[in-house]
Amino acid sequence: MALPIRRLIRAHGNSTFRRAAYIFCATLLTCSLLTGIIIFYLVVVPYLHEHGFEESLCHLAKIEPYTPILKCENRCSRERSFFPCLRVSVVFQRNNINFSATLFDTIETHEHYRTYKCVTHSCQKRLEENTFAIHVFRWRLIRQPVFRCFVAFAVHGNEALMYKYHRPSSVTYGMFLPALCCFIAILSLLALWHFDRCRVWHLEDETAFGLVESRTFNQESI
């Protein structure tokens, strides 16, 4: 019975490394999937929303004097501040025809405050700070009434953005690394399974069986 016991001892010598390899590859796969999902919602989805906006030249048409007070949409914090909703209309040309559009500063404002038609949002702790930020934004618009913008003629129903932040390169770079890590983790797990067949997780059963056989053999010898 010495030969099976020695074989089990040699197997246990490499079991720690193989188990660590399994755990590392599984952790890498899980982290890659979670990172890919987060990047998808933070980068890819806004890029797809911005994709329908084309570059144009906007002229300030109207700033509504009435600014209703809205609550900031912040899901990461329980503290909710308030800000005045400034509504702005612009005019742009398409095929030598003038069209009016509702202005938003970024795609984030467009997604969260499209219903209220707020041009921007400021979510500081105090209402006075948010009001001051909105007044500064209004003053800049009045100072520069003609500016480059991005309009959505048919996709979003005559709406305009002041800025576009997401580019195809950012989407490519953001998704490449998680996809590469996920691919490497899957290949490593397949290679481990091909050579090991998950036998490392059954060594304890084999050890217990070997010890039982050894005790039985010793008792019979006595």
Describe this structure in words.
There is one protein chain. The protein is α+β, with helices and mostly antiparallel strands and 222 residues long. It has a domain at 47-166. Helices cover 55% and strands 18% of the residues. It is built from five helices and seven strands. The chain has helices at 2-50, 107-113, 127-143, 168-196, 203-221, and strands spanning 54-63, 69-71, 82-84, 88-94, 97-104, 146-152, 159-161. A five-stranded mixed barrel has the order 1-4-5-7-6. It is elongated, with a radius of gyration of 31 Å.
Percent range of helical residues: 40-55%
Principal-axes shape call: elongated
> In percent, how much strand structure appears in the residues?
15-25%
Number of helices: 5
Run of helices and strands: HEEEEEHHEEHH
Radius of gyration: 31 Å
Structural class by helix and strand composition: alpha+beta
Spans of at least 5 consecutive residues with low confidence: 205-214
Main-sheet strand order equals 1-4-5-7-6
The largest β sheet comes out as: 5 strands, mixed, barrel
First-last Cα distance: 15 Å
How many runs of DSSP E, i.e. beta strands? 7
Average of pLDDT: 79
Membrane topology: Multi-pass membrane protein
InterPro entries: K_chnl_Ca-activ_BK_bsu (IPR003930)
Main location: membrane
Keywords: Glycoprotein, Ion channel, Ion transport, Membrane, Transmembrane, Transmembrane helix, Transport
